[in-house]
Amino acid sequence: MRLPKPPTLIRRLRDARVRQLAARCPPLAASLGRQAGGGFHVTLKVQGKTRTVYVPKDLKKEVEASIQEHRRLRRLLREIKASKQDCELKAFARLAGRLHQDFPQLRLCLLLDALYANGPVFDLCKQYRWKFIVTFAAGHAHALAALECREEARGESTRFAWLTNFRVDTSTVTALGNRGGRLRWKIENEGFNIQKNGGFALEHAYGNGPWAIKNFYLLMQLAHRVLQLIERGSLRVGRCQTLFGSLRALGRRLAESLRHQIIDADALDVAAAARIQIRLSPS
């Protein structure tokens, strides 16, 4: 089997962009104009107020260079932002193709943000017979069903809107909003946010190679799933919580036991383990 090489090309492109961001001279967000007497002036904003400053002739070239440098950096940042979005969309197309190739009969419902509200993504979903619920962004026109949710809490109103290829009517709109569109927030907050800030250290660089990162993330996903099941299962509400006080403390004890204690053969006896029940809940 031919293994792909590490993404050195991507790394070189990234490093080249970072090097370009280094300022060649002090950037200046201003415009240069000529005065009636032959001198020059720059117009710029200082603390929200527009100011005009006189520029001597011998400093004209330096000021022009600083203004051009600011424009170059701003243009480069726009290009980096656009390329990031383009990379995400291209990655989606690649991943969607691989998923459909490996699981052609699998039916999916994709919960996506507004970046993916475009024709190519919708065409792929139609081709693979996938459903989707996509965050709606103002200014985009699509021939799709739309639904809106308004939440009133503490005197404030929050609006949510989505595009979907589900059938939307009075019998489905509540489920599509609560169990579909708003579920994406739960995935973000109880998924990626927990993995970043809840002790899993998702953002820590445990390796440089692509396979090391993939293996770590797969193991982390398994550990997070076990944690979610335990949080909603019988261990937390039973004696376990009384003994250890918190799930974090339980995790530390389990890690230390695996690190320092030899697992007895009786502990791996399937017949003996059948008498023990730990009820887990996916709800």
Summarize the structure.
The chain is of the alpha+beta class and 283 residues long.
Structural class: alpha+beta
Helix content: 40-55%
Neighbour order of strands in the largest sheet: 4-5-7-6
Q: Helical segment tally?
A: 10
**Total discrete domains:** 2
What key attributes describe this structure?
single chain; 283 residues; alpha+beta; four-stranded mixed β-sheet; three-stranded antiparallel β-sheet; 7 strands; disordered N terminus
Please give a structural write-up.
This protein folds into 2 domains: 8-87, no CATH class; 105-273, no CATH class. It has helices spanning 8-20, 60-102, 119-128, 173-181, 183-197, 210-231, 234-237, 239-244, 247-260, 270-273; strands spanning 30-34, 40-46, 49-55, 109-112, 131-135, 145-153, 156-164. The longest helix has 43 residues, at 60-102. The protein is built from 10 helices and 7 strands. A 4-stranded mixed β-sheet has the order 4-5-7-6, with helices on both faces. It has a 3-stranded antiparallel β-sheet with strand order 1-2-3, with helices on one face. It is extended. It is of the alpha+beta class and 283 residues long.
Helix/strand layout:
Elements: H1 8-20, E1 30-34, E2 40-46, E3 49-55, H2 60-102, E4 109-112, H3 119-128, E5 131-135, E6 145-153, E7 156-164, H4 173-181, H5 183-197, H6 210-231, H7 234-237, H8 239-244, H9 247-260, H10 270-273
